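Hi F.,

I've been meaning to write this up properly since the lab meeting, where we talked about keeping a consistent format for the predictions we share between groups. The idea is simple: the sequence comes first, exactly as it goes in, then the structure tokens exactly as they come out, then a line or two of notes. No screenshots and no reformatting. I'm using this chain as the first example so we have something concrete to point to.
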Amino acid sequence: MNRDEIQALSEHLKCLGTKAVRLDRYLQRRAWGVYYSIWAVSILLFTFLSYPISLIRGAYLQLAAYVIAYVLIVLFASYFSGLVFSKARRLANLESDLSDHQDRNIKKKCGIGTLVLAVLIVAIIIIGSDLLRTAIGVLLEVIILALIDLYVYRMLGKSLGKIPFEGLMAVSVFMFSDVGSAATVFIYRSPEYFGYLWIPTIFAWFIASIYSIYHARDELVVQIDSQECN
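Output, unedited:
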């Protein structure tokens, strides 16, 4: 194989690699778009389910209803989120030949995902119980939800490289709602207005979902050359 053939092969592989990476980003961004909508619906349920549940008589029954309903929402949302991302990974897996490393990465990701899920359930128990009426409970809620938001930010960076506009908007508004809702508890000495500060997050995540799915096709635009990899 002469130098020209080696150069042509190198350019061909580079073109294929670029297309593979762009396809991966396209699939991942679409997956994030679905993820935003799943959790926007979940946050909507978190916010407004509290009103019918508050009508239940009996403190223990009310707490049980909070925990069961909210944990079920988290489990279903987590399951469908994982399903969406697993499909994206299967369609664009660039490390299929590195099976040993891949197994370790999968186990590591599953462990982190389980930990995040457990932390989120703890946050739900705090929100649904009288702990939200105490300074320690509010502080724990802020810290837990902030850590989850930072985890989402980190995963956005790992899966998409440069975090797109809708991702930055989603994590920023979530942090605003987290801190703002906690501030209302301190200011008014009551969790009465706690849910109102999460309405911006619901709208922002729905908008992020639509924007992400619509603009996912932008990732398929080849900036170097618009030609096919021959």
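Notes:
Residues 94-111, 222-226 have pLDDT under 50 and may be disordered.
Residues 151 and 162 are 16 Å apart (CA to CA).

If this format works for you, I'll send the rest the same way.

G.
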